[in-house]
Write a structure and sequence with these properties.
With 202 residues, this protein is an alpha/beta fold. It has 2 domains: 2-13 and 70-113 and 128-200, Rossmann fold, CATH 3.40.50; 16-64, Alpha-Beta Complex (thrh gene product, domain 2), CATH 3.90.1470.10. It contains 9 helices and 7 strands, in the order βααααβαββαβαβαβα. Strands 4-3-2-1-5-6-7 form a 7-stranded mixed β-sheet, with helices on both faces. The longest helix has 14 residues, at 39-52.
Length: 202
């Protein structure tokens, strides 16, 4: 049996922190895992900016409520789910994900959670586990699933490398330069064909 594991932001929905950056007018919040490979460092940096600007979880959730899936993402996901199992592996947080999952038809997502104080200010994160995307792939493979993984950022590379097959989707130039051997898909039609060929391969 096959299972497809997809990143969320940049693959199915816009980058949440970029949308929040645009809403708040804070360009320093535009940095994502497409540029910064150290996730703990990135989240510490983000939380410091939030504290300095008195921005709470509610402020972020208000912006997330306005985000729509990328054009064609829902139809693509529906097509893939017709031919195989799909799980979203994301470093986002359950406190962010719910409205996005609703718009995508409630796919399964494995992600992290936030720590907030009494004023709803972000004070920390609870990772499901370190390098959770790779470990999820290893877990599925241990259950005899053939695995396909795809994403667009530094934190997707270990799961793509660990999976039986995988690709980048609309990855930035810096990652393409550093990972020239990885397959790149730039449209959902191409992406679907890549997954379908994996599912049909015996």
């Amino acid at each position: 049996m096959e299972i497809v594991c997809l990143d969320l932001e940049g693959v199915l929905v816009p980058e949440i922190w970029i949308a929040f950056s645009e809403k708040t007018g804070l360009p320093e919040l535009r940095i994502t895992t497409r540029e910064e490979p150290d996730y703990d460092k990135l989240m510490s940096y983000r939380m410091d900016i939030l504290r300095k600007n008195n921005l709470s979880l509610t402020d972020i959730q208000d912006v997330i409520s306005t985000i729509k899936p990328l054009d064609g993402a829902k139809a693509f996901l529906d097509k893939v789910r017709e031919i195989t199992q799909v799980v979203i592996l994301s470093d986002t947080f359950k406190e962010f994900a719910k409205p996005l999952m609703k718009q995508l038809g409630w796919p399964t997502i494995l992600c992290n959670s936030l720590v907030v104080d009494k004023d709803n200010m972000l004070t920390g994160i609870k990772l499901r586990q370190n390098d959770g995307k790779r470990k999820a792939i290893e877990g599925f493979r241990a259950m005899n699933f053939r695995t396909f993984a795809a994403g667009d950022s530094y934190n997707d590379l270990t799961m793509i490398r660990t999976a039986d097959r995988g690709c980048l989707f609309r990855a930035p130039a810096n990652i393409l330069k550093e990972e020239p051997d990885l397959k790149l898909c730039t449209t959902y039609d191409e992406f679907y064909r890549e997954i379908k060929s994996f599912v049909e391969y015996r």
